[in-house]
Design a protein that fits this description.
- By secondary structure, the protein is of the alpha+beta class.
- Helix content is 34%, strand content 39%.
- A hairpin with a 2-residue loop joins β3 and β4.
- The longest helix has 14 residues.
- The chain starts with a helix and ends with a helix.
Length: 140
């Protein structure tokens, strides 16, 4: 039996985490986030958040800006060597507004021992895909 076949389904784990986030279940959302993980949103000019507490605080603040929030995963691929690539559509409605915000983001998620150790978000999906594929290859 190969090591790959015994690896947990990382796409499912990510989806479970994203679904928990969308329903504001922060305890469940953080279940697979390593205590020393990094969430990198520098491509959006927001910097990086280091450690589970900082990540949770950032994500709580982010979703707190929306009265309604939706996450739709368009694509999820385990590229190998613990690298997951996800494309998702995010939508929401700020409090007191009838307008909706809609964005499309990619997430490159690096896993180690069943835990997320780094998440890199990017709006440029094509650039992110190439970077994620290179990362997976370099970890091999």
């Amino acid at each position: 039996m190969s090591a790959e076949s015994t690896t947990p389904d990382l796409v499912e784990r990510w989806q479970e985490t994203a679904n928990a986030y969308a329903r504001r279940d922060f305890h469940t959302m953080m279940r697979f986030v390593a205590s020393d993980a990094v969430w990198d949103v520098s491509s959006a000019g927001l910097g990086s958040f280091e450690g589970a507490a900082a990540i949770r605080s950032f994500l709580e603040d982010w979703i707190g800006a929306y009265e309604e929030y939706e996450y739709t995963q368009e694509e999820g691929q385990h590229l190998g060597n613990g690298v997951l690539f996800v494309v998702a559509s995010l939508g929401g409605r700020p409090p007191g507004s009838a307008a909706r915000v809609q964005e499309r983001w990619s997430y490159t998620v690096i896993w180690a021992e069943g835990m997320m150790v780094r998440v890199i978000t990017r709006a440029d999906i094509d650039e992110a895909r190439v970077a994620a594929e290179r990362l997976a290859e370099s970890r091999g």
